[in-house]
Amino acid sequence: MKIAITGKGGVGKTTFSGTLACILSEKYKVYAIDADPDMNLASSLGITEKITPISKMKDLIKERTCAEQGSSFGEVFKINPKTSDLPEKLSVNYDKNGNLKIMVMGTVEKGGTGCVCPASVLLKALIRNLILKKDEVVILDMEAGIEHLGRKTAEAVDVMIIVSEASSKSMETVERIKKLAEEIGIKKIVCVLNKISNETEKSFAKENLNRIGLEILGCIPYDSEVSVADMKREPLVLYENSKAKNAIKEISEKIMNLKN
User: Fold this and answer.
1) pLDDT tens digits for range 43-100
2) 134-144, pLDDT tens digit by residue?
3) How far apart are CA 195 and CA 123, in angstroms?
4) Which of 68, 135, 175, 228 is the most exposed place for a label (fewest CB within 10 A)?
5) Cα dihedral 54, 59, 60, 66 sign
6) Measured on CA atoms in the order 168, 196, 248, 38, is the torsion positive or negative?
7) How many whole angstroms separate alpha carbon 64 and alpha carbon 22?
8) For 85, which DSSP code?
9) Using H for helix, E for strand and C for coil, what is the string for 110-176?
10) Dihedral sign, CA of 148, 154, 157, 158?
11) What pTM, to 2 d.p., does this model score?
12) Which domains does the chain have, with CATH numbers?
């Protein structure tokens, strides 16, 4: 199962991604991929040590693409670098059993760096390998622009989940992401509502999502324990009575049934 998760900044996308990864790793082998420039997935899981993003591994980029990051325009480099060995080499084990592995992609700096193609090519090739070649569950915590996904890679994603709050701005972002996702070939696109406090918010969101033809896979209630977990830098799955965690657990079962 290959799952891409996206949404407007601040809607709880990364908390959802990390919690979902932990829950699914109880039954499956999971790769949780941080492909968001903010790179907060590891901290949402309670990982405090710094993980070097792959986009900053200059020696690796040079070795695999035969070009240095910031190379001058027109320099020849490999556009299909070898990445099959990298998931095992570059991932961090979250649990003792190795059921959940974390990878941080990082982002490519655009301003004043010259040609940024080598790093971009390596990141996209690595994500392509994870989605097309790996049998494990892969969860991609994406930015709203989903720029890491190329057309062929996107076609292999089983589902894209757009996380959204019940606000006009979030709904506008959902509509833009849905349009972009459809353009690059993603066939199954659903929405998860987050931080829902009352029926008025839920009705507002449902009305807007029905208008654009987007299925609501689940609804996560507002939960103060999410903030507590964040302040303590602890994973939400540790909070047994968390309403949000329990809702994500129910949603996880629906996600795994989408492929059946």
Assistant:
1) 999 888 888 999 889 899 889 988 765 554 455 677 788 999 999 999 999 988 889 9
2) 889 999 998 87
3) 32
4) 135
5) positive
6) positive
7) 31
8) T
9) CCCCCECHHHHHHHHHHHHHHHHHCCCEEEEEECCCCCCCCHHHHHCCCEEEEEECCCHHHHHHHHH
10) positive
11) 0.89
12) 2-257 (3.40.50.300)
pLDDT tens-digit profile of 101-155?
A: 999 998 765 533 444 468 888 888 898 889 888 889 999 998 876 766 766 667 7
> Which helix (H) or strand (E) covers residue 221, if one does?
strand 215-221
Predicted confidence at residue 169, as pLDDT, reads 93
What gap in Å lies between CA 175 and CA 187, rounded to an integer? 15
Q: Which two tokens stand for residue 169?
A: 């701005």
Across 2-23, average pLDDT: 94
CA–CA separation, 23 vs 253, rounded Å? 10
- Only one residue has tokens 């891409």, namely 4
Place of tokens 């309670």: 46
b vs e for 45-56, b when ≥16 Cβ sit within 10 Å of the residue's Cβ? Answer: bbbeeebebbbe
The CA-atom distances, in angstroms, between 246 and each of 141, 209, 236 are 20, 23, 10
Cβ neighbours of residue 233 closer than 8 Å, sequence gap 6 or more: 43, 46, 48
